[in-house]
Amino acid sequence: MSVRELVVLGTASQVPTRHRNHNGYLLRWDGEGILFDPGEGTQRQMLRAGVAAHDLNRICVTHFHGDHSLGLSGVIQRINLDRVPHGVTAHYPASGQRFFDRLRYATAYRETVGIEEAPVAEDGVLATTASYTLEARRLSHPVESFGYRLVEPDGRRMLPERLAALGVRGPDVGRIQREGAVGDVRLDDVSEVRRGQRFAFVMDTRLCDGVHALAEGCDLLVIESTFLDEDTTLAEDHGHLTAGQAARVARDAGVRHLVLTHFSQRYSEPEEFERQARAAGFEGELTVAHDLLRVPVPKRR
Question: Residue 266: CB partners within 8 Å, gap ≥ 6?
Answer without folding.
Answer: none
